[in-house]
Specification:
Pfam families: OpgC_C. It is built from 19 helices and two strands. The protein is mainly α and about 375 residues long. It has one domain (about 5-365). It has a two-stranded parallel sheet with strand order 1-2.
Length: about 375
């Protein structure tokens, strides 16, 4: 592992794509969401987002550790924890304010209810306290509380993943297997109502860390077992797609996503393996170089996530519901395109304002995560 290596262009590209997909997925009347991962798999962009978060966290920890030492690396992630918590509060406030405006103007009633504003009005002090202590998360802010927890654990998980990857993986798997009883143990009213059970979803985060610290070697990928793994992954991805398209056509129970069911994990791992193969082949780097705007979104992840929640809500509200058929489809598609452009512009504005970051580079064969 080389802590001095530049940023991975592939990881920034993947993060950018996923952030855009998250915005599109949260426009209920959108058209492009029907082409996203969740339409063809039992997992969705959430798994990719969390796994890439683990990878990026391990990379950031290693960079600070090599330059400033262990104490600085620990402090960086304690600070990061506070940054994510502030982003969570901002997202919650924006969500509630949006709900208040929608209710006041009598617009998009379903979205107003989703924001949690009606419940907040009934008991503002209690709701504000519950939001502050992470007991309840308004709508799109729900993914951030578990990131607060993950940021705290990075200084402990990353060194363990470096020294004893098998131990780190085993501990993560055991925690995932016991996620539901652990949630109940830590107060059922507090944890089990989270949209993402952190005891389950830490598995995706740890997988990301392990991918950074202990990558699959080129030799194994090119070996006979490696090629068999690739064939199995292709078969699994196609099989899950058939199941999702033709068998499980109705929305699946929410607890499967909340507690990161085993079929979601398997489906994601198959997709992730194929992504590694494409990265090693240089395919993703070629795509990334042709989409620098998407890379900027990936480099401004927290900002684009918070801004994206507002963008998706505004676009959904602005899409007319009084029209039907082809006209409605075209209007919804136009809304999707507006949302994509808005996210790209937000990333560009933020990057220009904050200044340049560490230079990017395509991941080499020995560095592909």
């Amino acid at each position: 592992m080389d802590p001095h290596r530049p940023r991975s262009i592939e990881v920034d590209f993947f993060r950018g794509v996923v952030l855009i997909v998250i915005v599109l997925d949260h426009i209920p009347g959108g058209v492009l969401q029907h082409l996203m991962l969740h339409a063809y798999a039992l997992c969705d962009s959430a798994e990719v987002f969390v796994c890439l978060g683990g990878y990026a966290s391990a990379a950031a920890y290693g960079a600070v550790l090599s330059k400033k030492g262990e104490k600085a690396a620990h402090n960086r992630f304690y600070k990061r924890c506070w940054e994510i918590y502030r982003a969570y509060l901002l997202t919650a406030v924006l969500t509630l304010l949006s709900g208040a405006i929608l209710q006041l103007l009598q617009l998009n009633r379903p979205m107003a209810d989703l924001t949690g504003w009606p419940l907040f009005v009934e008991a503002p002090l209690r709701e504000a306290f519950d939001i502050a202590i992470l007991r309840r998360q308004p709508y799109l802010s729900s993914v951030l509380p578990m990131y607060v927890i993950f940021a705290i654990t990075v200084p402990f998980i990353v060194p363990l993943a470096r020294k004893a990857p098998l131990t780190a993986a085993t501990a993560s798997l055991v925690t995932w297997a016991l996620a539901v009883p652990l949630a109940r143990l830590f107060a059922i009213d507090d944890v089990s109502d989270w949209a993402f059970n952190p005891f389950a979803w830490q598995l995706m985060f740890v997988i990301g860390i392990l991918c950074r610290e202990r990558p699959v070697s080129d030799r194994f990928l090119e070996s006979k077992p490696g090629r068999w793994f690739t064939k199995i992954a292709i078969t699994a991805v196609l099989a899950f797609a058939v199941v999702k398209l033709f068998i499980l056509t109705q929305p699946l129970p929410g607890h499967l996503k909340q507690n990161l069911s085993i079929e979601r994990v398997i489906n994601f791992l198959a997709i992730a393996w194929l992504a590694v193969v494409l990265v090693r082949a240089g395919t993703i780097a070629k795509l990334a170089h042709k989409a620098p705007a998407v890379i900027k979104v990936g480099q401004t992840g927290l900002v684009c996530f918070v801004g994206g929640t507002l963008i998706s809500l505004i676009v959904d509200t602005a899409t007319p519901r009084s029209i039907h058929g082809l006209t409605h489809g075209l209007a919804a598609l136009a809304g999707d395109l507006v949302a994509i452009i808005a996210v790209l512009l937000l990333a560009r504005f933020w990057k220009d304002w904050k200044g340049p970051t560490q230079p990017r580079a395509a991941v080499s064969g020995a560095d592909c995560r």
